[in-house]
Amino acid sequence: MANQSQQSSQKGSAGKTFSAVTSAINRMSGEEGKANIKLGELFSGVFKKHSKEERERLFTAGLTGTVPDERSMIAEWPRPWFYARVFAVLFLLTAVIYLLLFYLYHLYLTSTMILLAVLMTPVSMVLFLFECNIPRNISLLDCVYMSLVGGVVAMIVSVLVSSLQPAGTDYYTWYGAIISAIIEMIGITILIYTSIKKNNSKYLLNGLLIGAAIGAGFCILENFGRLFSLSAECAYFDENGLVYISYFRPQLFQCWIFSIGTHVVWGALIGAGFVAAKQDGPLTVTAFKNPLSLRFFTTVLLLQIIYLFPLPAGRIWLSYLVPGIIALIGLVLLLFQISAGLRQINRLSNEAWQADAAAMPEEADD
């Protein structure tokens, strides 16, 4: 009996702890209401057949005449599907070239594989959030532009800030991980702030998409630089395809798998933080010290520091476990913010209808 009561008290305390953590995550954006994450609906459209009209309607989002009014926005869980098709195609092409390199080493095949590997996850994640953007006020062309320009400028800013560090700085320590995380965050945050200020976005789903697009551009460039430099080292030591792939495999798999919950998601969370801080007003520099945005900044910075922290040598399993946990945490945070964005859409839609209802008696009196 004593053991049973002890086990039930432990379960109760664990349940309370879990409830407290999820409640804290749910309150990050300041939106009220309970998070209702429906993963079944979120992925229900992936395996269904979609018509040509659906594809055309998807790609015209954000163009003139396609942005819906707040009253007609449906605040239900979206059913994105196109991102999965893009991911599947890029994955298949990358896998084919990966297997081919075991038997035929060629520089062109290597560079093609690197390009496909670094594009696969970030591009799919941006398309996923593009399809989840219920306001439909950001076009696919805008996403491409923000990814290209934002990613390049963010990389340049990060490199310039990194060059200000003292010569000989060891980035493979706790101190180095903190410095690296801050340097990367500076460039991405400045570009996300500028893009949200320019678009004057008030929807959390907009902030997630804008931040993800810029984070994806940075992620693609960073991973391409890392893998390309590593491929040069491998080619220098041994031009045999089998040895090359064996040496190259861990970093390639990390690009495939862990990009799903790192820079793209971190950028999305920073964007959501800025939108949560600005609300309906203009975005100003005061957003950087707003408690709502600081929650997101602090969370992203901690995740990035842990992700960059050097792991003990000889324990390869840790190089998969730690980034995997960080990516999983990022995805959970992203789902909670999508839920918050849907609740915001529902609130704004109701307010618009209430404003119309309040104005109708005045028009009737006139």
Report the helical percentage.
Answer: over 70%
Number of strands: 0
Portion of residues in beta strands equals under 5%
Shape assignment: globular
Query: What's the SSE pattern?
Result: HHHHHHHHHHHH
Structural class: mainly alpha
Low-confidence stretches: none
Largest sheet, in brief, is: none
Q: What is the tally of helical segments?
A: 12
Determine the N-to-C terminus distance: 75 Å
Question: What secondary-structure arrangement, pairings included, does this model have?
Answer:
Blueprint: H1 2-26, H2 39-42, H3 52-59, H4 82-100, H5 107-132, H6 140-163, H7 174-199, H8 204-237, H9 241-257, H10 263-278, H11 291-308, H12 316-365
Task: Describe the structure concisely for a colleague.
The protein is mainly α. Helix content is 73%, strand content 0%.
Protein described:
By secondary structure, the chain is mainly α. It has one domain. It is 73% helix and 0% strand. It is built from twelve helices and no strands. The radius of gyration is 23 Å and the shape is globular.
